[in-house]
Specification:
The structure is a homodimer of 460-residue chains. The first copy, chain A, is mainly alpha-helical and 460 residues long. Chain A has helices spanning 6-14, 18-25, 30-39, 42-51, 54-62, 66-76, 80-89, 92-100, 104-113, 116-126, 150-160, 185-189, 197-200, 214-224, 244-262, 277-304, 306-311, 313-317, 319-342, 351-384, 391-422, 431-455; strands at 143-144, 169-173, 179-184, 208-209, 228-232, 238-243. The first copy, chain A, is built from 22 helices and six strands. In chain A, the strands form two sheets. In chain A, strands 1-2-3 form a three-stranded mixed β-sheet. In chain A, strands 4-5-6 form a three-stranded mixed β-sheet. The longest helix of chain A is centred in the last third of the chain and has 34 residues, at 351-384. The model of chain A has no long low-confidence stretch (mean pLDDT 86). The interface between A and B is large, with 111 and 111 residues.
Chain lengths: 460, 460
């Protein structure tokens, strides 16, 4: 329905009928308009954005990708007033997100345009670490004092409610702005107007700390099923609120990052199509080159067994099969454990129990693949007369090597995420391909060692 | 803080001090209690759950893993009244989720225990497909008629508000229960008591269809920043509401499934530690065996080049290095594209533009790895006198083969997700390891073809 509208919007822009454009856009949600703008030609997008009323422009602006945001701000620069309006109208959390990608000097210039109150907020929120809850916080909430009456509170809510992100939950703070409790607006509405706010306090407060990692916020929102949570600093002073929509975005973005890292590249940090081609290549080339250098050790390992290969070329035929099985089982174990760690199903101290399960899994999977591999050699030998006179010993070599390699791959894959996390690193970082590379090299050693043992005196 | 309490709770259970247990638990959130129960011994968990008041037991029950739910229901079975109370107290969406995993006969028995209204709801919600929005819907919402006055509406809200999941958003339906609009409770509260509900309607309704995929619900919640959305059927009749907390769970679970599939196993469908060992092995063995059978073609491919390998054993040394580079670049491209498709950054019709970007990326990455590989051969040859007299030609072979293999891996990795999605399959299904396997086999052919071309007349 909405996509069909794009040509109409483009026509209106082309014909410079901005009044009608404005009217058409008035019926759409900010999320729809931002999606439309991402599809339009850059100049058309900027013109459309300028045609919106300033508070609405701010809401749409917050949802755009960083490069359109920058282009828009640049296009506004000659018009200092309009720029100031936009920056002041942005929600504090969206403003923080926009500022984060900018050079220090530009941020300073923008901060100087803000009015004193917004500037103070912006500086405070920017002070929290990247990926911390503080960076998600917005200061547009309603706060009451415990000694106010319900009637006073209602007057305050009516006065400041419009600017607040939500009036469903109201916060109670003391005179030092330390958070005391939160209250549902319905409890205030249904209360006796003479009662004090203190009497309504239920003291079942759940809070986030501004320094907490954003992933922790996702876990807490899931555990407590809240739509909004207050953020406090180490002194219990209220910093702001975090709403579920930001948390949903964080959950999706964290998952995207983890998936991209698991696939062996850096996190792109921007939508695929919006990522410039050179960035796309840079983010992938680094890890690919590191893995390649790691994988070079396979050539070294193979070099050690060159005489064995020359004696029994047939051994080389199964090299890709054996080592890739180790790699696959390692990636499998690594991804399962990494995700379990990310969503908190498994904790660092569970590593010992996990290893117990993975050793049994690795043995079972190794036996299954070993049996298939053994059968493959036997069937081809009997049916096509391949692999020479020692086919049975070759089959045994392949089978035993597979058990060893798959068990080793599974253990390495399960253990590496714990080691990375224990070292304070992100377990997702390139783990699956890294495990595959590690297991390729060591798998060769296992394979040729088994071969040397089983085939000694016959093929070797 | 909360974890330290576990020993205390265990003591209270051991000493059968249920009254004190009840009092202690009263101060905790359902999410905290369910987490505690998952840690406790099974029998202790069931006793603790029984000690909770029945409506609270239902809330905690909804958050437990399926096997504890089943054990609890079985333990209640002799006490028909308590079981009926639990099933009737469950939120409709949580009840649907519980029923879904049960055998048909058991569901029938449970349905017969429900009171008529809840039974009708339960049957209707169970009728929607698995992973559809209908399965997430709850019927605990407040509906008004457009011709009611604000005063009538407020009376209705006060009367039924307690049982509703939310009173923040109220729904307006006609006499056939077709959804007309939604209204924020604050708009009703601030309106003239004499006004009609129709006058408050803003007609900016965003709805979900009960048959929609749950992933679509996540996208719509993100686009519109709503905490609650109404669900309608094909006739516009209101089915229920979906709340952000269920959507956050869906987002996390979908990401977990995608990650597990990308890692080359089936989705586990339950937390790692709660998955029985035999299930864990079964879910992994299937894909591992399929990939293994696919990888067997490497042995066949290598077999075709056995004479080349026998003539130039040195070629075999680089087999793992060359084919794993193709596999790594293929996994990288596949994971990036799969995630972009999953979150809607890229659509099926974009495949042509994506391929354009990936061909350039693949060439660039291939040149980088080709150059490193070429350098590796040259340096080892000059420094250690390895690889015989034709080391320069060998270096050229490795370099060219890497360009071809990486380009091919990247293209295959980027294209496969589009093909799977075009066929109506889940692009995440084992794509990364599947691409790696495909590229291993074809990479061998590319490698030995390049070798035959470059080394013909010298080594071969």
């Amino acid at each position: 329905m909405f996509e069909e509208l794009q040509p109409e919007i483009e026509d209106l822009i082309e014909q410079r009928r901005f009044h009608q454009l404005k009217e058409t856009l008035a019926t759409f949600e900010p999320g729809e308009i931002s999606e439309l703008l991402e599809q339009l030609e850059r100049d058309d997008a900027l013109l459309t954005l300028r045609s919106l009323p300033s508070d609405r422009a701010a809401t749409v602006f917050a949802r755009l990708s960083h490069d359109i945001q920058l282009a828009f701000v640049e296009s506004l620069s000659p018009d200092g007033e309009r720029l100031a309006e936009l920056l002041n109208d942005l929600n504090p959390d969206d403003r923080t997100a926009f500022f984060v990608g900018l050079p220090e000097t530009v941020v300073q210039r923008f901060l100087s345009i803000l009015n004193p109150k917004e500037r103070q907020n912006a500086i405070r929120l920017l002070g929290y670490p990247e990926d911390s809850v503080g960076r998600l916080a917005t200061t547009d909430y309603i706060a009451l004092r415990p000694d106010w009456s319900v009637e006073q509170a209602l007057r305050h809510i009516r006065r400041f409610g419009a600017k607040s992100e939500t009036i469903n939950v109201i916060y109670v703070v003391d005179k030092n702005w330390r958070l005391q409790d939160d209250i549902h607006v319905r409890d205030i509405l249904l209360a006796d107007p003479e009662a004090t706010i203190r009497e309504l306090m239920a003291h079942r407060l759940v809070t986030l700390n501004a320094d907490d990692d954003q992933e922790k916020a996702v876990a807490i929102f899931r555990e407590y099923d809240r739509a909004i949570l207050p953020v406090i600093d180490d002194n219990g002073v209220m910093v702001g609120i975090v709403t579920f929509d930001d948390v949903l975005d964080v959950a999706e973005e964290e998952a995207t990052e983890d998936i991209q890292k698991l696939g062996g590249s850096e996190a792109l940090d921007s939508p695929y199509m919006a990522t410039p081609l050179h960035t796309l290549i840079e983010k992938r080339a680094g890890w690919l080159a590191i893995l390649f250098v790691g994988e070079m050790f396979t050539a070294t390992a193979m070099g050690y067994f060159e005489t064995e290969i020359a004696k029994a070329v047939v051994l080389s035929l199964f090299v890709p099969l054996v080592i890739s099985s180790g790699g696959n089982s390692g990636s499998q174990a690594a991804t399962i454990i990494i995700r379990a760690l990310a969503v908190g199903e498994v904790r660092l101290r569970d590593w010992w129990r996990v290893m117990g399960r993975e050793v049994i899994s690795g043995l079972a999977l190794g036996f299954i693949l070993g049996l298939i591999g053994f059968t493959r050699v036997i069937v081809w030998a009997l049916a096509f007369g391949m692999y020479g006179e020692h086919w049975l010993l070759l089959g045994i070599t392949i089978g035993l090597a597979l058990i060893g390699v798959v068990l080793w791959g599974t253990m390495a894959g399960a253990l590496l995420p714990f080691i990375l996390k224990g070292l304070g690193l992100d377990p997702a970082t390139s783990s699956a391909p890294f495990v595959a590379t590690l297991v390729d090299v060591t798998g060769l050693v296992i394979y040729f060692s088994v071969a040397a043992f089983v085939l000694s005196g016959t093929l070797l």
